[in-house]
Design a protein that fits this description.
The chain is of the alpha/beta class. It has 17 helices and 16 strands. It binds one RNA strand of 85 nucleotides through helix 5, strand 14, helix 13 and helix 16.
Length: about 425
RNA sequence: GCACAGGUGACCGAGUGGUUAAUGGUAGCAGACUGUAAAUCUGCCGCUCUUCGGAGCUACGGAGGUUCGAAUCCUCCCCUGUGCA
């Protein structure tokens, strides 16, 4: 089994499922915090492990190929046992392929059929990323889920440009898969025959499973079916053209992956357009595989997409916005630096049960932010991630109950 | 008391005759942020009006003066720092 995906409940198009990775389960629909450079910025790993009202914490986080390749270098990470061990994160890990950097570093790169030549934003040195290279790096990092190397098409893009970009992403997907299948055994944990969260791969840094509620539910019969290698996801592109999206989805499915991502969204288009593109793509993607919308979104967006049948999402928004003083709450957005919170003794979110809301006032968080205290970033990020994780937990619960109407209308409390 | 050096908008600090309501910072106020080149970026930041194009008023320690025109030059006064007594 490359990546078990067991659907446990459905409500309309939405599904509540469980992905079994070699590093623990992932309950879906899931929000995945972004940890670009081997850290979810401002939050220690042990805190990530029990964020949220139920202390389930994040079950999966992201890392980034481009950033970790430049620093500290994927070979160093491999030498140190892989990214899980390096950053002491025992749960599931997904690495982005560097495809998004093709888009975001547009002034520092050049795209050709072979791949993308980059200038490092750190020191200006030149580097070439190809599908093969991206796979090599991701395998060395040892993520549980590896992403195909794609081109995130810019927006706006003419139809013909979007088509050509999509075609190249398809060719790169085949190359990604070919290299990945030939080399996936080389990932740091595949070689050791690691199975499941319960084994003590590096006991010197491990917590015992019993102390980590979110990851402690494994039993031996399930463990035997856990993946022995990473899994590679394909990525659908197609710009803002529904027919291209469908074609991209069909042809990506033909190549065959254990999960599919929808990329190239939230790049400047309207929310309605984003939703339409997701809807068009979901029509085609197989219902028995995880579907992952990359790079979204606001709390209300991830709820909506989950309701449409999306299983996984990631976004820098909760972490970045937190560092910029924006808190997401059940009462809407709170810009904690605003003067009106200077004497507000209430919690950031009166309906949130996270450890930040239980302990600190808006006045204090504002003071920390205004004072540029590092703790401001820590506490704000902890809250935002807890809010996102709790939002997804509420969505999963609602699916189990077979009714998403309450949470879609925003009338259901998260805590 | 004498000699230098200074006194600029909330603060620091440019500017030494007009293009100056006055460069830059900081503080303050608000906004943005969607597979992280982001603890970042943007706007506002003398007062009063405004059809949002602008209009008027006040302002570079104080008071006079020179000049078509002064934060900028001159005189006197006040204050601050340093040195010498």
């Amino acid at each position: 089994m490359t990546l078990p995906f067991n659907i446990q409940a459905q409500a309309g198009a939405a599904r509540q499922a469980r992905i079994e990775t070699a590093h623990g389960p992932v309950e879906t629909p899931a929000f995945m915090p972004v940890g670009t450079a081997g850290t979810v910025k401002a939050v220690p790993q042990d805190i990530l492990e029990d964020l949220g009202a139920d202390n389930l914490g994040a079950q999966i986080i992201l890392g980034n190929t481009y950033h970790l390749y430049l620093r500290p270098g994927h070979e160093l990470v491999r030498k140190l046992g892989g990214l899980h061990k390096f950053m002491s994160w025992e749960r599931a890990l997904l690495t982005d392929s560097g495809g998004f950097q093709v888009f975001s570093l547009s002034e520092l790169r050049k795209v050709t059929e072979e791949g993308v030549s980059f200038r490092s934003h750190l020191d200006g040195t030149s580097h070439l990323f190809t599908p093969e290279r991206s796979m090599e790096i991701q395998i060395a990092l040892g993520a549980d889920i590896v992403m195909a190397f794609d081109e995130c098409t810019e927006h706006p893009a003419e139809r013909e440009r979007a088509r050509q970009s999509m075609e190249m992403t398809l060719r790169w997907a085949r190359r990604s898969k070919e290299y990945f299948e030939a080399h996936k055994q080389e990932c740091p944990w595949a070689e050791s025959g690691h199975r499941g969260i319960g084994s003590s791969r590096h006991p010197e840094t491990l917590h015992t499973p019993a102390t980590r509620p979110g990851a402690a539910a494994e039993d031996e019969s399930v463990s035997k079916e856990l993946p022995a290698t990473p899994a590679l996801f394909g990525i659908v592109q197609g710009g803002m053209y529904a027919d291209l999206r469908r074609e991209s989805a069909e042809r990506t499915v033909e190549i065959g992956f254990p999960g599919y991502a929808i990329g190239g969204l939230s790049v400047g288009e309207s929310r309605e357009k984003t939703r339409d593109m997701i809807a068009a793509t979901l029509e085609i993607l197989p219902k028995d595989k995880p579907r992952y919308v990359m790079g979204v979104g606001y709390p209300e967006e991830i709820v909506q997409y989950a309701a449409m049948g999306v299983d996984m999402m990631d976004c820098v928004l909760p972490t970045r916005a937190a560092r910029h003083g924006l808190l997401f709450t059940s009462e809407g957005r709170v810009n904690i630096k605003n003067a009106r919170y200077a004497q507000d003794q209430g919690p950031p979110d009166s309906k949130c049960g996270c450890r930040v809301c239980r302990r600190y006032s808006r006045a204090y968080l504002r003071h920390l932010f205004v004072s540029a205290e590092p703790l401001a970033a820590v506490l704000n990020t902890m809250h935002n991630l807890a809010f996102y994780l709790d939002t997804m937990r509420a969505v999963r619960h609602a699916i189990t109950l077979g009714d998403l109407s309450g949470i879609l209308s925003g009338s259901v409390s998260l805590a």
